[in-house]
Amino acid sequence: MNITVFGTGYVGLVQGAVLSEVGHNVICVDVDAKKVEGLKNGVIPIYEPGLEPIVKSNFEAGRLNFTTDAKSAVEHANVLFIAVGTPPDEDGSADLKYVLAVAETIATHMTREAVIVTKSTVPVGTADKVKARVQQTLDGAGKSLDYHVVSNPEFLKEGAAVNDCMRPDRIIIGTDSELAEKRLRKLYAPFNRNHDRVIVMDIRSAELTKYAANCMLATKISFMNEMANLAERFGADIENVRKGIGSDPRIGYHFIYPGCGYGGSCFPKDVQALVRSANQVGYNASILEAVEAVNYRQKEKLFSYINAHFNGELAGKTVALWGLSFKPNTDDMREASSRVLMEQLWAAGAKVQAFDPEAMEETQRIYGSRDDLILCGTKEAALNDADMLVICTEWKTFRVPDFDLLKNKLSSAVIFDGRNLFEPEEMAERGFAYYAIGRGL
Ligand code: UGA
Q: Domain UDP-glucose/GDP-mannose dehydrogenase C-terminal spans what residues (predicted)?
C-alpha cells in the first residue's frame, strides 16, 4: 500500500520505517529540510536501536522516501498519518497547532478520497478538530471530497521503539467508518499474524485509551515511589515488597520499579495534559495530580540525600554522575531526573562530572559549556577527584562497577543510587555508605 507519514520525529520516523520494512511504499514528510536531507543520506536524528539499518535499507530499496514537498506526499497515498509533535503549552495542555496545520495541508492538496490517521498523542476530541479543519479547508477551496479521520495511537517505548512497532501488543483503531477500518486492517495485516491484535472502537475512546495507558503506568511508578518512601521510614526494604506484590498476577512485575522519578517525553506531558483536559470538563483528576506531585518530589530525592549526607556543605564538592538520559538505551534527556539533580547541585555550588553512554551530546546541547559541568569520555574518568558517585540511569554498564577503583578514586566512599542497582548489605561489607530508594539507610 502507499502510505504518507507527516512528521519524522520519534513516532513518525519509526512508524514510517517499520511500515516500509513490511513492504508498504512510504513517504515521510517534514518541514525541516535539513533533517529530510540528512535522512536521505542515512543520518538518523535520534538514537534508537535497530532504526538506522531499516531506514537505510528501505530507502535504498525505494520503499521509504523523505520529502518536504507536502503536495506530492499527499498525492502519493490514501492513508495519511499525522505524527507531528504536540508540545505542552504554558498551562500543560497539548498544543495542537502542528497537528491542525498538517490537517490543513492535507486538505489543501487532497484530490481524492483519503483516510487521515492521528498517530500523535492528542487530547480527546482532537479528531473532531482535525475533521473540522479539513472540512473548513476543503470548503474554502470549493472541493467536495470524502475523507475519514481515524485515531490510531502509538504505544512504542523509546529504546525499544522498532521492536514495539514490529510486534505491537495491540493496534487500536478508533473510527466510525467501515472503509477506514478495512483499510487500516489491511495496512496492519503484516503485524497481526498469529492472533488478532486489532481493537476497533469509537474515536474518543481510542484517544482516551492512549492517555489512560500512560497515566496508569505513571501511577504505578509514583505509587511504588510512595511505598519506597514509606519503606524507608518503616525500616522495610522496597525491593522485597516489590517482589512480594509483583507475584500477584493482578499486580504483576512490570513497571513497579521505584527510582528517582519518571521522565521522558510522554509520562510527564501526558499526565499533565489529562489533568488539564479533565479541568476543562469540570473534573478534578486528583489521582493524576498526586501522581505528578509524587514524581516531582521523587526527582528531588537524590539531592536531599546528598545534601543531608554532607550537612548542606556542597560548595566546592565534585559529584561523579553516571547516567543522564531519562532511561537506558536512549539519548533523550527530556524531563530526565538527572537534570533536576544537576541543577540543584549547581545551585548549591557543586561541580558535576558526568558520563552517559549516549546522552553526552544532548547534555552539551542543553547546557552548553559551563565551569561546573564536565562531560567525561568514560565512566571511570567521571570519578577522577570526585567526592561521591551518583547514579541516575540504570544503563547496563553501571551494574557491575569496579568497586576497588571506586574506593580509590572517591574522596568519600559514598554512592547515591537512584535506580537500586546494588545490594545494601554488600555495599556495607565493601565499606561504602550507600543510599538507594526505599531500602533503609
Ligand atoms: C512510555 C510508555 O511506556 C509507552 O508505552 C508509550 O507509548 C510512550 O511512553 C509514549 O507515549 O510515546 P517511554 O516514555 O519511552 O514510553 O519510556 P518508559 O520505558 O515507559 O519509561 C518512562 C519513565 O519511567 C523512565 O524515566 C523510567 O525510568 C521510569 N520507570 C519505568 C520507572 O521509574 N519505574 C518503572 O518501573 C518503569
A: 320-424
